[in-house]
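[agent] plan:
  1. take the single chain provided in the ticket
  2. run structure prediction with default settings
  3. attach structure tokens to the ticket
  4. add a short note for the reviewer (M.T.)
[agent] executing step 1
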Amino acid sequence: MESELLYKGKSKTIYAGDDNQTCILEYRDSATAGNGAKKAEIEGKGVLNAEISSILYQYLEKNGIETHFVKMLDATRMLVKKVDIINVEVIVRNIAAGGFSKKYGVPEGTPLKNTVMEFCLKSDEYGDPMMNESQITAIGIAAKQDLEILKNMALRINTLLSSLFDKCGIVLVDFKLEFGRHDGRIILADEISPDSCRFWDKSTGSKLDKDLFRRDLGDLAGAYREVLRRLKNVLQN
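[agent] step 2 finished; step 3 output follows
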């Protein structure tokens, strides 16, 4: 019996779970950029993102960050806790890159004097516009105390992931997080993968993330495989 389709995004599909506490998150081979303006199918991408995300969720759980991860069902499908997504994306930046460099005229690769945290409305229709905290609270997306939880969790995740990837010889440049409510608690949801992070090789500066697709720079699947290989190597030793 096929699970009920709940939502189909640009690169992931969500199905109903066996109870009202869980969902099934399927990672697909689809690659998109520019809010879906650029599209392609990249063989093996779904498997790679699923495995990378599962490894990172389990690493964060062991270090005190609750996530929606329950277990892998197969190579591309993950059983997750059902959440009510908070309709704001949290972006954490350690080094200037991408949209930050374009908007503020800071050369890509410039180390930032402090960690930057941005909030964006989760909306393809409106182009994911940046929001400040007073705008978020004014239209009822989240309360002030919720935003404090998001910020504290995001900073803790940044510390944990930056340390882990440093051991992998990878610089965590920036990344996007999404959170949701489950049983009254705010937990980490969505994915953590090279689709949602910028990874640069520590020695060469070469890109190991979706910028390879965005900018037509080379072998996306090969870069994702390298990220996975290094993660496994560090966490298994």
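[agent] step 4 note for reviewer: The two ends are 41 Å apart (CA to CA).
[agent] ticket updated
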